[in-house]
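Table 4 source record.
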Amino acid sequence: MKNPGVKTVALLALFLLFTPVVSLAQGGYEDKYNISVANMEKGFPSNYVDDLFVDSAGFLWIATGGGGLCRFDGTELLSFSYTTTPSVRSNFVRNVVQDGFNRLWVSSEGGLDILDLKHLTHVELDYTLSMKYTLDYFTGYRSALYCMGPSGSAAFDYFHQLVY
């Protein structure tokens, strides 16, 4: 098939041929689940979600691009932004993870924040973490929290002391 138009038409025909079969095979989900859309029209702070995390208490934490951090308990949405108390360093939140001491570690374009989940208060670091745009972190070797970003990497023990 040297003519790209013929190839496009052939692929479209295959797609249309198999679409009804796939739709029938995956049917019935709407009967099993209660699905609703959360967006800005319905009071959600942002239409962009970067990360979802369920903590040990069962709360769903939603990292948004432009709306800060949200906690959803199944009925009510609690928002944390640059202007709320407790606040996060930026409304562009990228990742969320919980440590073994019931604290939520939040990475955003403004840097790293730690929230005490029991009291919903901000935990201050003993120093200023200059690493901005922290892209990802995970727990691993020796129960440390590893942060990575364009400006380098860092590891923290669970007492939020900088390991390296």
